[in-house]
Amino acid sequence: MAETTYRIQAPASLPVTTEFSPRALRMFLLLVLAGSAFVVSGLALDSPRIWPNLLLAGFYVVGIGLAAGFLVAVSYISNAGWLTAIRRVPEAMASNVYVGGLWMIMLLAGVHSLYEWSHTETVAADALLQKKEFWLNVPFFSVRTIAYAVLWSLFTYLLVHTSRLQDETGEVTLTLRNRAIAAVFTVVFTLTFWIASMDWIMSLEPHWYSTIFGIYNFSGTFTSGVAAVTVAVIALRRRGYLKEFVRDDHLHDLGKLLFAFSTFWMYIWFSQYLLIWYANIPEETAYFLKRETAGWGTFTILVLLFNWVIPFIALMPRSAKRSEGVLLRVSIVVLVGHWIDLFWMILPTFMPGSPSFSIWELGPIVLAAGLVCLVTVRSLTRARLIPVNDPMLLESLTYHS
Amino acid sequence: MAEFSGPEQVLEAARQAYAKGYRQMDAYSPFPVDGLAEAIGFRRTRLPLFVLVGGIVGALSGFFLQYYAAVISYPLNVGGRPFNSWPSFIPITFEATVLLAALCAVVGMLMRNGLPRPYHPVFNVQRFERVTRDKFFLCIEATDPLFDEKKTLKFLESLSPANVTTVDP
Amino acid sequence: MSDHTSILRSPLILGNKSYSDVTEDVALPLDRSPGKEWWMAFAVSSSMLFLGLAAVTYQVMTGIGTWGLNNTVGWAFDITNFVFWIGIGHAGTLISAILFLFRQKWRTSVNRSAEAMTIFAVICAGIFPIIHMGRPWLAFWVVPYPNLRGPLWVNFRSPLVWDMFAIGTYFTISLVFWFVGLIPDLATLRDRTASNIKKKFYGLLSLGWDGSNRTWLRYETVYLLLAGLATPLVVSVHTIVSWDFATSVIPGWHTTIFPPYFVAGAVFSGFAMVLTLMIIARTVLHFEEYITLHHIESMGKIIIATGGMVALAYLTELFVAMYSGNEYERFAFINRMFGPYAWAYWIMVSCNVLSPQLLWLKKVRTNVTLVFLLSLAINVGMWFERFVIITISLTRDYLPASWDVYAPTLIEIATLIGSFGLFLTLFLLFTRILPMIAIGEVKGVLSYGRASHEAPKAEGRYVSAAHERVPGGVR
């Protein structure tokens, strides 16, 4: 293309970095330290309970990072100009892939506390688990976990790095290069994420299987990622950082995404439930039976309420999607809802009977929340808040939704 | 009625006319021009509410039809499932919701727009034929309180249009 | 707006058309008497239609025994065709609704024909379940209505009843959506034609449209709402079709991924069919400036994406069958890959998974002939996908004693040919009566990407504008 041969020069008046008040950073650091203290004492005092919660929080963190990275990648591939003005936020959030990936690798230390199939004596007594041993064995599982973390980190890095490079050089070709990276990232992501979610979560109940499980996790993860980006954008805007650039139209589009993907999540949830309910095959229904009896039954209603009913009703009017206040609240509901959803998937195996909440649940949440905030903010300070040289920027600053 | 050859010109003219105080007017164009409806003082429509009501009625009646048939009128054990098999009633409930909401949207739009409309005075102008092709029109109606045949005509001419005509009722 | 459009955008419509040119170019084929090519195509398609009509007439008079079905395989050719056509019928609404919601402006050149295609494909699809009933004159029994047979209702727990509701709704809404989109263009035709009869005809259909901007605003609102409603509707239709199979307990049919997998497959096949028809139309009717290489490339990219989803679903099914450790699940897939119908499975894989990968290359995406051939391959592959799922799963189920084979009879093949005849005949008639390209919508995007395409000017403007927008500094 002819238009790729020239450059766009960055306006000289822009400062290079974004600075945040050290107080906020200290607060996030404090959260991380407090969370770590909880987790360490949990490992010492009640390790069977803390491990599944650590799995939950680790998957949450890596999921937020991946979802943000995927959002950036998709915006490149589909030429979605609108995101450009706020793209630095998901880019920064994508750094959580590194931390989350590391977290998942560290979880390998608890593999025996988490996975029934990792005990040779259990497998020896179970004919079905023997058939699954080719896939569910500790060495291969560890290799896979490391491979996912490395691959995801690599592509996230390339994507973000190329975007930031454009700030300096103004080369339009960098956008085209990132388009290619984004395409490959999307392929890698879709080929690995579904199977990673089956490895980490579905194999907690190794007799049960569902082909839609990976897509179900994608829908929940992506929805929570959009919610996290929305919260960050609104928080930045309220503090005056993005004020000049983010208009209600951007919020409107984020709101539409949240609305659509929350509904997509519901669709996938219902598809899985209906098919298992309808066919009524004992191996499959065991999963839902466990989640429909005693206290878990009420909990299931919470899952649906937080992930779909509330966002769907709240975001239906156009004005709600353009309102900072409504969008912020709904995004927080979705973020809580995603935690509830993962709790609902992971914990029933470890908490037969009824769900309960204690400091061992709280510890990993505090650690994860602190980490996500800290990592995102630190990453935001490393680059300009606006991709000043992106050829789509002006379009993003002026469009109407 | 003034004729323009581009979307920018008619938009500018509409803004000036609105600023001048004209309210009973309408702009005509071959495709929707961004901001033109706002410029002649037309704001949002209430159609979305109408559609929402249609959707809710559709959902309730869709579910009730199935509930009535399967639980009240003709309870039958099918494959050991409960009479009120709500998960299997959801697909039809959904379809009924969409069907009614969409039909409400279209019927509502046609009604509010007064379509189908067999006669409208603007069609009496020969040149108006080109409104669906490449020309843009701004028409100030005689019902406007500020309307005065001579003055309005003069005002329209001041907007440097391609042509000005009076529309016979 | 065009001032702010990114330099990476290129014009959608080539050849510096004026508004009037658009009207003329699109409407011209409707005035010309149909050429020799059109008559030849029409002769072929209507002969196919008559062949199908004869086959269906014979089948209805004689009975379902004229088909190759047996006790083991109760669903085969007919249901394959049904799912195939329903799938084709998904791209039209997808292009109109989802691409509209995502502001993919290039859709304007192709959405009209794609929607028409949707409607014709749904008509073709609807025929198959009805003739499969054997006594199609009792087809109305699937509709719930108060009747004199005691309080007797349809079984609302049956996916087949869901199907009836889904397809009925889909057909109605697609038709309405299409018609709403047509109203302004019908008015355009009304105002340009010289013939009195045509003026009456288009005038009646255009409902007295005058282009008022109050009307336009409400019209746009409704179009947006319809798009918002049509999107979940499209998804629901193929989801429900997939439930026809997935609610059962047959290995190869009962799997939870079916709903999104079928939807992706439908979009994939639908886009392939749109490409096939659009490439023919742009060449025969000379719409190269409207349906540009850019459009073909964009559709090619969507094919890669949806093809990728379909491939992922194949992989998931295969992996989980193995992972499950369930011997019936495992056997269903081994039978597909290496059983008596292995050839069908491998045709499916090579057409749907391997061939679209060529589209990653820009050279291939912009080569019209190659894209055309690939789109044909995908059409074939997607037909075989349904055949593989439906028929192969049935031939060998839990009880080896009841295993059987299935082969279609000539009557069934003639019926399939007839459905293609119906589809093509309707499409050919459409190209003669209604504008193939959405005139009003194309005018709206006419200037898109033009100003910004003059690169140097755009550059200067971009920098200065970006400069202005930067406040005292980003902290």
Average pLDDT over all residues of chain B: 76
- The whole-angstrom Rg of chain A is 22 Å
Q: How many helices of chain B? A: 5
- State which percent range the strand residues of chain B make up: 5-15%
Spell the H/E element sequence of chain A. Answer: HHHHHHHHHHHHHHHHH
Termini gap of chain A: 29 Å
Low-confidence stretches of chain B: none
Radius of gyration of chain B equals 25 Å
- The beta-strand count of chain B equals 4
Largest sheet of chain A: none
N-to-C CA distance of chain B: 12 Å
| Number of strand segments of chain A | 0
Topology:
The complex is a heterotrimer of chains A (401), B (169) and C (475).
Chain A: H1 22-45, H2 47-77, H3 88-93, H4 96-106, H5 111-114, H6 120-124, H7 127-131, H8 138-169, H9 173-200, H10 213-238, H11 248-279, H12 282-290, H13 294-314, H14 318-321, H15 324-346, H16 359-381, H17 393-398
Helix pairs in contact in A: 1-2, 1-16, 2-4, 2-8, 2-9, 2-10, 2-15, 2-16, 4-8, 8-9, 9-10, 10-11, 10-15, 11-13, 11-15, 13-15
Chain B: E1 2-4, H1 7-20, E2 25-28, H2 36-39, H3 47-73, H4 86-112, E3 136-140, H5 149-157, E4 163-164
Chain C: H1 19-31, H2 36-62, H3 77-88, H4 91-101, H5 111-132, H6 159-192, H7 196-205, H8 213-246, H9 258-284, H10 293-324, H11 327-338, H12 342-354, H13 362-365, H14 368-395, H15 410-433, H16 439-444, H17 455-469
Task: Describe what you observe in this structure.
The complex is a heterotrimer of chains A (401), B (169) and C (475). Chain A is mainly α. Chain A has a domain of 266 residues. Chain A contains 17 helices and no strands. In chain A, helix 9 packs across helix 10, helix 10 packs antiparallel against helix 11 and helix 11 runs parallel beside helix 15. The longest helix of chain A has 32 residues. Chain B is of the alpha+beta class. Chain B folds into two domains: 88 residues, no CATH class; 67 residues, no CATH class. Helix content of chain B is 48%, strand content 8%. Chain B is built from five helices and four strands; from the N terminus they run βαβαααβαβ. In chain B, helix 3 packs antiparallel against helix 4. The mean pLDDT of chain B is 76. In chain C, 68% of the residues lie in helices and 0% in strands. Chain C is built from 17 helices and no strands. Chain C is mainly α and 475 residues long. Classes of the chains: A mainly alpha (401), B alpha+beta (169), C mainly alpha (475). At the B-C interface, strand 2, helix 3 and helix 4 of B face helix 1, helix 6, helix 8 and helix 16 of C.
